[in-house]
Specification:
The structure holds 2 protein chains of 2 kinds. By secondary structure, chain A is of the alpha+beta class. Among the domains of chain A are: 213 residues, FAD/NAD(P)-binding domain, CATH 3.50.50.60; 95 residues, Glutaredoxin. Chain A has 14 helices and 29 strands. In chain A, strands 1, 2, 8, 9, 10, 11, 19 and 20 form an 8-stranded mixed β-sheet that branches. The longest helix of chain A has 27 residues. The N and C termini of chain A lie far apart (52 Å). Chain B has 3 helices and no strands. The two termini of chain B are 21 Å apart. Chain B has one domain. Chain B is 68% helix and 0% strand. The longest helix of chain B has 19 residues. Chain B is globular, with a radius of gyration of 13 Å. By secondary structure, chain B is mainly alpha-helical. The chains are: A alpha+beta, B mainly alpha. Chains A and B meet through helix 10 of A and helix 2 of B.
């Protein structure tokens, strides 16, 4: 039991018995009610797809789990209508400091630019996040949360997946058109489909302590290499909600995980860091080791893997939960189009193309950070220490210091869904990139660009709008929104961020990524680009 | 081939002497630190990734 949080107990409801012996059939079954499963379910429900979520537990996550949520992830949650509650409860930050011994080596600012609705980063304990997502899922009326439902078997045909589900009232079967496996790094579903989950284990252990205290550290990410209070190792400090602080002590490979978890071992470490006069209580303590791994394919027939079930990274960089939520962001609209018969099932292969590419990017960054924090040989440690020593007076070396490169969205620049540019554009909004936010005026009132976009595809036109209100491609319609007629470019930032000189047209996907762009409106080209973005 | 392989240091004997002299009062651990720092400073000065890659390959020969 925590001092700052009471865990909710969600009600287990037995699956309705079917007197005729038929098997229950659902469009989508999500396995795992963590941040990724719940976000994906919420996204699907908001697109009109009913979802059943199966979870083997009946409460939110326990222990020191995900903590830092990046701007792009918050933008996804804002699209789903849940971000504000998280931002209000969470702790906002954008500054990081890296120390070596007693000295500040360098500092960084994650978001030196204003004009974005969402902050660069918030810290929020995972249990709050899940609680808010559960509330939001229930409000849709389309998400059925089944607690104490454990998936024990899975079989697939061309038409469906059949799940064996164990509950306190016995076992039953459930058929689903599609299964989204969000059952974490130790995914049972991954084993059931026989997927490979290869990668690298790091020979190091870390003590993670969530500590309740009144402390006067600023709300920044502080990272120490070789501090006087924990010689030869690294320490990471983050502020959480409710005056809880997360302290992450590197222990080395030889540390005994059971011994290190004991309060009589943990408390002196924290006292050495804070000084004897600071009072604190332990909320949670655990010892972790890390791996960087990825599933072979994100799609195995009718089963789609998301979050830690598909990829596992080290925590330095906050790339785990963030990239998992971005998986769901990518998947939900594609599943909806396929279920509606508006896109071929092969559109789901682009989920692998785009998110495996993102996972590889995250794994690369995570592996590089871990290699810097945990040098694998004496020689690489000498080089690492040389970088840190030089960084105190040489600006070039600060760029080499790697205490974790914090989560940034990976653009899908080589996605088959993109229509390549035919004209020259300035700035970063290349096809495959997530859309930058910017302040706008909507009906004369201050609003935000991303929040003003419709739920499906958008044709964003700079300047006068063409006569029609939408462009259709098959069964998919893209609504035309004009920057000028519909939205005011309050500070000129939309035009600047999108290089939106008059006449410019963007095709924006339902997950707020650029699919195509042109310098003039041409309905036939837009139609072709929509078809391409739908996998036709 | 962008890396300079031909002699490029004026007064090579003088340079080598200077390099050795900078190590003279250092124990092995400090000398290692010094060499790592010097490597990083010079690599940054070069900057060109292609040159650096070639230099890494030259240094790896025979190892």
């Amino acid at each position: 039991m925590l001092k700052t949080y009471t865990f909710p107990k969600f009600e287990y409801r037995p699956a309705a018995a079917r007197s005729d012996g038929s098997v229950e059939r659902r469009s989508v079954a999500v396995i795992g009610a963590g941040p990724v499963g719940l976000s994906t379910a919420l996204d699907l429900a908001q697109r009109g797809v009913p979802v059943v979520v199966l979870d083997d537990n009946d409460t939110v996550s326990v222990g020191s789990r995900a903590l830092c949520y990046a701007k792009r992830t918050l933008e996804v949650w804002d699209r789903l209508g849940v971000a504000q509650r998280m931002v209000d409860k969470g702790v906002q930050w954008k500054l990081g400091k890296v120390f070596r011994d007693r000295d500040l080596v360098y500092g960084f600012d994650l978001l030196p630019e204003t004009g974005h609705r969402m902050p660069a980063m918030i810290n929020l304990q995972q249990y709050y996040l899940e609680e808010y997502l559960v509330d939001a899922c229930l409000r849709t009326g389309l998400v059925e949360l089944r607690w104490k439902h454990r998936v024990t078997g899975l079989a697939q045909t061309d038409e469906q997946a059949v799940l064996e589900v164990e509950t306190p009232d016995g076992a039953h079967r459930l058929e689903a058109d599609w299964v989204v496996a969000c059952d974490g790094a130790n995914s049972d579903v991954r084993r059931m489909v026989g997927a490979e989950f290869g990668g690298q284990f790091f020979q190091d252990r870390f003590l993670i302590a969530d500590v309740l205290m009144k402390a006067d550290f600023p709300t920044e990410r502080w990272f120490w290499f070789d501090p006087p209070f924990h010689r030869g190792q690294s320490v990471l400090l983050h502020r959480e909600a409710d005056n809880v602080w997360r302290i992450d002590f590197q222990l080395g490979w030889d540390a005994d995980p059971e011994e290190e978890k004991k309060p009589e071992r943990v408390i002196p470490r924290i006292q050495a860091m804070l000084g004897p006069e600071v009072e604190f209580d332990l909320e949670w303590v655990s010892v972790y080791q890390f791996a960087c791994r990825r599933i072979d394919r994100f799609r195995h027939g009718r089963v789609l893997f998301a979050g830690d079930a598909a990829h596992q990274v080290s925590p330095f960089g906050a790339r785990g939960a963030n990239s998992g939520v971005q998986d769901g962001d990518n998947l939900a609209w594609k599943l909806q189009l396929v279920l509606d018969g508006a896109a071929p099932a092969s559109l789901l292969d682009s989920y692998h193309d785009e998110r495996a590419h993102a996972a590889d990017d995250n794994l690369l960054n995570s592996t590089r950070s871990t290699d810097f924090i945990t040098p694998k040989s004496r020689a690489s440690r000498v080089l690492r220490d040389a970088v840190l020593e030089l960084a105190e007076h040489e600006p070039f070396a600060r760029k080499l210091v790697n205490s974790g490169r914090l989560s940034m969205p990976t653009p899908y620049l080589h996605s088959p869904l993109n229509t390549p540019d035919e004209a020259d554009f300035e700035g970063g909004m290349r096809p495959g990139t997530n859309c930058a936010d910017a302040p706008v005026l909507q009906d004369g009132r201050p609003a935000w660009l991303l929040a003003a976009l419709p739920a499906g595809f958008t044709v964003l036109v700079f300047g006068a709008r063409p006569p029609q209100t939408e462009v259709r491609a098959g069964r998919v319609a893209a609504r035309i929104v004009s920057v000028g007629d519909d939205l005011g470019d309050a500070q000129g930032l939309v035009a600047r961020r999108y290089d939106g000189r008059p006449g410019t047209v963007y095709l924006i996907r339902p997950d707020h990524h650029v699919a195509a762009r042109w310098r003039a409106f041409d309905a036939a080209r837009v139609e072709a680009a929509i078809a391409r973005a739908c996998g036709h | 081939m962008k890396l300079v392989h031909d002699p490029n240091i004026p007064d090579p004997d003088g340079f080598y002497e200077e390099l050795i002299a900078s190590l003279r009062d250092l124990d092995d651990a400090r000398a290692e630190r010094f060499q790592a720092k010097l490597l990083l400073v010079l690599a940054n000065h070069v900057g060109d990734r292609e040159v650096l890659r070639e230099a890494i390959a030259v240094a790896r020969r025979g190892l």
